[in-house]
Amino acid sequence: MSRKTALIIDDEEASRFLIRQYLADYPEITIAGECRNGLEAVRDINAMQPDLVFLDIQMPAMNGFRVLEEITHIPLIIFTTAYDQFALQAFEMNALDYLLKPYTRERFSKAMDRIDRSGHAQNLHFLADAQTVNFPKRILVEKGNRLKSIAVDEIIYLKAEKDYTQIHTHDQQFLSSQGIGIIEKRLDPEKFIRIHRSHIVNILHIREVYRDISKMFLVMENGTELSIGRNYTDNLKKLIY
């Protein structure tokens, strides 16, 4: 196994200790850090960019699945949880393995054996090369008790609303039951960029950008002003020529 960094994410100290203990058998794995809740997890995954993450599901602030929706760096994921009912959802997100607590050293070893066979995190389905992905030109969104078809190019921006996502066009607003992180992975990154933890914009509808004291703002074609998060300014800089 090649050298890798790992992040341990679990709200229980005993669970984190067990993983540290088992990882002692793998000197090629360097523990980059530990997190006790979902907010710390998103922050540290994006900042440290570990190769491997041991991720609990039920945690304070944000559960493990929500963490995966919010991160921009995508590592290999091994879920570690006391709940068996989330296994299907975990593997739908291409988790490397699903360790059900309490698990043995032998079971942990089997999970670790999957790492070299998996290649790198690029095997996750939502990191497929954008050039080979057929991004939809139209999508179906809920409107009352019906599904309405809208052109993706008509979307001006998307806004996170707790576990839901608001989709804004010029004259309408829709509410999707999908989290903004999941929707982001289904949109063409050549057209849609993340400018904030809560906002994704369609670059086709950006009118202008301006700075106010220490913050930067986007003005969209419909007049909506959106602030640009500090961690997302690089996404915008790529558009500047």
From TrEMBL:
Residues 139-241 form the HTH LytTR-type domain. Keywords: DNA-binding, Phosphoprotein. SMART domains: LytTR (SM00850), REC (SM00448). The keyword ATP-binding does not apply. It comes from the Bacteria. Pfam families: LytTR, Response_reg. The keyword DNA-binding applies. Residues 5-116 form the Response regulatory domain. One of its GO terms (molecular function) is DNA binding. The modification 4-aspartylphosphate is found at residue 56. Gene3D superfamilies: 3.40.50.2300, LytTr DNA-binding domain. PROSITE patterns: HTH_LYTTR, RESPONSE_REGULATORY. SUPFAM superfamilies: CheY-like. This is LytTR family DNA-binding domain-containing protein. It comes from Chitinophaga pollutisoli.
